[in-house]
Amino acid sequence: MWQELREELHPRGLEIVTVALDAAGAAAAGPWIAKASPRHPSLIDREHAVDALFGIVNVPSGVWIDEAGTIVRGPEPAHPRPPAYKDRPVPPDATPAQRERIEVVRALHVEAERYVAALRDWVARGAESRFALSQEEVVRRSRPRPVSEAAAAAHFAIGLALNDAGERDDAIAHFREAHRLHPTNWTYRRDAWSLSGPEYETVYGTSWLTEVKREGVENYYPALEMP
Amino acid sequence: MLFRSAAVTASELERVTGWRLKAEGLCREDRCVPFVARDQERVALADVGTALGMPLVHDARHGLWALGAESGGHVLTSAIAPDLELPDAEGRPFRLASLRGRKVLLVAWASW
Question: What is the per-residue pLDDT for A81?
């Protein structure tokens, strides 16, 4: 996804590091990485360490870090270009549920051009860029972390370990608890669902569409807070 | 941060969480939190959790304990990028800090 931008901006001092939030690890993310054959570091984060470390709750999310190792922006939704799913037409034989899902997906707030323009500005101007935030602002914008959300991460970690050990039902119980405690963390939700395959809706008693409507379509990818 | 017992040695605590037990208390990078271990040999995870604001979740059936991240404040206590080390698709470890001197765009994505 990011190759072209990386090739454009790498000579100007930017490196891109991708982090795959896949509980299934290299087995799931590996084929995508191999197909992209990127020149930048492409890492696997099965345990969602970056969720706890940076406050990432959905993908794709971007964090900007300057040459000194200081965060200057993020996390926030980060699309290199409008995703293909935004243009998906509604098939004439779509059921009402399918139609609704496609319409909700098309209503998701994706601001690719704006994000990439901001990124280019930062690469060109560094600290002078109006998109680079002060340390105080970066901390101020970071999410509060109530105990419930910290506990969600603990449940997700246990769920992952149990899933690895073949204890599927007990893993699911912990994943469900993680979802309950941190309902706005889409990575815990969708990663856990992916481990159950297509029958995840039956296993978890919900669906992507139900959850997105409950949390608010406008909140799935919040609007970028930038000039 | 996953454990298989309710109390661990100081070295295991440091290895898993990055928090080190010192005379000043529990310390990580340039922060220290007051803490006195009740036992010489092993540190109770519940006590660590209380001191650091980290909830402790216990799965009794499988003998697993997990400490959540520090809570009560914001996700970021400073803008200094946390030390991150993750494997690539071949399992080779990579440290974010190795890119010091470059601007970095870290992008989280997923195959699902």
Answer: 92
Q: Which residue has the tokens 């970066």?
A: A138
Residue B29 pLDDT: 80
Q: What is the mean pLDDT of chain B?
A: 94
What would the two tokens of residue A5 be? 């931008």
Q: Under an 8 A CB cutoff, do B89 and A33 touch? A: yes
Residue A24: phi, psi to the nearest 5? -80, 0
**Which parts of chain A have pLDDT scores under 50?**
none
Task: Take residue A30 and report the two structure tokens written for it.
Answer: 């590996």
Beta strands in B12-80, from DSSP E residues, in sequence order: 20-22, 25-28, 31-33, 43-44, 56-59, 64-67
Give B-chain residues touching A122 at CB under 8 angstroms. Answer: 103
Buried b / exposed e across A188-212, counting CB within 10 Å, b at 16+?
bbbbbbbbbeeebeebbebebbebb
Question: Chain A: nearest CA to B40, how far in angstroms?
Answer: 27
* Contacts (Cβ under 8 Å, ≥6 apart) of A81: A1, A112, A116
pLDDT of the residue at B58: 97
Beta carbons within 8 Å of A153's beta carbon, 6+ residues apart:
A48, A51, A52, A178, A182, B68, B69
Supply the ipTM of this predicted assembly.
0.95
Could you tell me which of B81, B76, B80 has the C-alpha nearest to residue B95? B81
CA of residue A90 relative to chain centroid, distance? 25
Tokens 């992916």 appear where? Answer: A194
Using a CB–CB cutoff of 8 Å, tell me whether A181 touches chain B: no
Q: Where are the domains of chain B?
A: 2-67
pLDDT one-digit tens code per residue, B98-109: 999 999 999 999
Whether the upstream peptide bond of residue B87 has omega within 30° of 0, thus cis, is no
Q: Is A216 on the interface with B (CB under 8 A)?
A: no
